[in-house]
Design goal:
With about 450 residues, the chain is an alpha+beta fold. It folds into two domains: about 1-65 and about 125-290 and about 335-450, Outer membrane efflux proteins (OEP) (Up-down Bundle), CATH 1.20.1600.10; about 70-120 and about 290-330, Single Sheet (Outer membrane efflux proteins (OEP)), CATH 2.20.200. It has eight helices and eight strands, in the order αβααββββααβαββαα. Strands 2-5-7-8 form a four-stranded antiparallel sheet. Strands 1-6 form a two-stranded parallel sheet. Strands 3-4 form a two-stranded antiparallel ribbon. Helix 2 (about 30-40) runs antiparallel to helix 4, helix 4 (about 125-190) packs antiparallel against helix 6 (about 265-285) and helix 4 (about 125-190) runs antiparallel to helix 8 (about 410-445).
């Protein structure tokens, strides 16, 4: 009966190990640095930010076009089956003096082709737009950098979640190995008549629980790996192998934790500062509506009047050129205070942005203070949990020895095994908390991109 109970357990364990080995052979090895660099190049949000940056140049070109000459061509062909008639006084009637005459003026066909040119000579809104062009490009550059930093934070956190789950699997595997040794001893005692069936059953249940826990962790690893692949922009179906936990051993070192930091160096604040500059230019563009505008206009056209279809008929006496050059001056006088209302709206937008900047600075300071507290506490917790694991292992070794000598009951052995498992899980959880706090600390100092080096 006991062999039947253990057979599916070990079969599942062997299959899991084989599956992991196959993935290790076929999957793509992925370090944290590689994951971060891959994300910056492939994740959707990062690629969209680069498209926004590319589009910013097109918007700048659009603004600059307003300062360049605007040239357009035109053409017109009219046929008048019934010409407009005008009445001439009878005094001009040579054949019948005193009798008014109806005279048709014009020709049946009227063709006209021409070209028009307009050049802004003075338009304050155009000048303001040209000044804002450079700031627009800088804004989108900073926004692209901010998006990359957000992607890096997201990927780094997700990466360590995978790492922690893999470390927990390693701990469970160690516990399964230890419990299996205890099972072999108890089973041998039972078969020799020195043990109890209930003890064998207890250890069997312990092994079954550990195997179920391992399977849950395997499922969690798969989910976290899929989540990581999604965050970095990798196809979810592509197999990857996260670097072994042993190669990511956490080294607690002396951290540089100044009392405060300069929030103005953070990308979030720099983006808001550039956004404020753009809003200032937007306000100036509205104020420019009070200024007069002056533009140069010129046009040239060729016109042909004839009673027959003019195209292809060649030049005739009714064909002539027309050209004109002029200046257009527009002076705004009163528009119902519409401009003033738009200026007031722009002022409100500026005030709202400044409130957002104050809130963001406070949020950055809050994150930094919390990160400092968390990193200090997690260093202490890590050290304590490491000691707890060592003590739990020592207690388990002593309890196992006493049990083999008949000096301790099985419940003490199982309790010691559970205590070790709990200490190991707490240690792994402390590793994750430390890493997350470390990422937040690096973020608060504006140094997330150093993770890619």
């Amino acid at each position: 009966m006991f062999k039947k109970n253990l057979k599916p357990l070990w079969l599942s364990l062997v299959m899991s190990i084989v599956t992991g080995s196959v993935m290790a052979q076929t999957g793509e090895a992925l370090t944290l640095k590689e994951a971060l660099n891959y994300a910056v190049q492939h994740y959707t949000d990062a690629r969209k930010a680069r498209l926004d940056l590319e589009n910013a140049q097109y918007k700048i070109d659009e603004v600059r076009s307003r300062a360049l000459p605007q040239i357009s061509g035109s053409g017109q062909l009219n046929y008048n089956p019934l010409l407009q008639q005008s009445v001439l006084p009878g005094a001009l009637n040579p054949s019948n003096p005193g009798q008014d005459m109806l005279i048709a003026f014009g020709q049946k066909w009227n063709a006209n082709v021409g070209v028009n040119l307009t050049q802004n000579l003075f338009d304050q809104s155009v000048f303001t737009g040209l000044k804002a062009a450079k700031t627009t490009k800088e804004f989108y550059t900073l926004n692209n950098q901010l998006t990359e930093e957000q992607v890096l934070e997201q990927v780094a956190t997700s990466y360590y979640q995978v790492f922690v789950q893999r470390q927990q699997i390693a701990n469970v595997d160690s516990n399964i190995s230890t419990t299996q040794k205890a099972y072999n001893i108890i089973k041998g005692q039972f078969e020799s008549g020195l043990g109890k069936q209930i003890d064998v059953d207890r250890v069997t249940v312990q092994l079954s629980n550990l195997q179920s826990q391992r399977q849950q962790l395997l499922n969690a690893v798969t989910q976290y790996e899929n989540q990581l692949k999604f965050y970095i922009g990798m196809p979810v179906t592509q197999p990857v192998v996260i670097e072994d936990p042993e190669q990511l051993d956490i080294a607690v070192f002396q951290l540089d934790l100044p009392d405060s930091l300069n929030a103005n160096n953070r990308t979030e604040i720099r983006v808001l500062n550039k956004q404020e500059e753009l809003l200032e230019y937007q306000k100036k563009s509205i104020v420019a509506e009070y200024y007069p505008t002056l533009s140069l206009t010129s046009n040239y056209s060729y016109q042909s009047l004839s009673n027959r279809f003019p195209i292809g008929a060649g030049r005739n006496g009714n064909s002539f050129d027309v050209a004109a050059i002029g200046l257009n001056l527009k002076i705004p006088i009163f528009n119902g205070h519409a401009t003033k209302a738009r200026i007031n709206q722009a002022n409100v937008e500026l005030k709202r942005l400044r409130e957002d900047r104050t809130k963001t600075k406070n949020s950055i300071d809050l994150s930094y203070e919390n990160a400092k507290t968390q990193i200090k506490n997690n260093i202490i917790i890590l050290n304590n949990q490491k000691i707890n694991v060592e003590l739990a292992q020592k207690v388990l070794d002593n309890t196992r020895s006493n049990y083999q000598l008949g000096l301790a009951p099985l419940t003490d052995l199982l309790d010691a095994q559970n205590a070790l498992s709990e200490a190991q899980n707490n240690h792994v959880a402390a590793m994750l908390n430390y890493r997350v706090a470390e990422i937040q600390l690096i973020k608060s100092k504006g140094m997330l991109k150093t993770l890619m080096n």
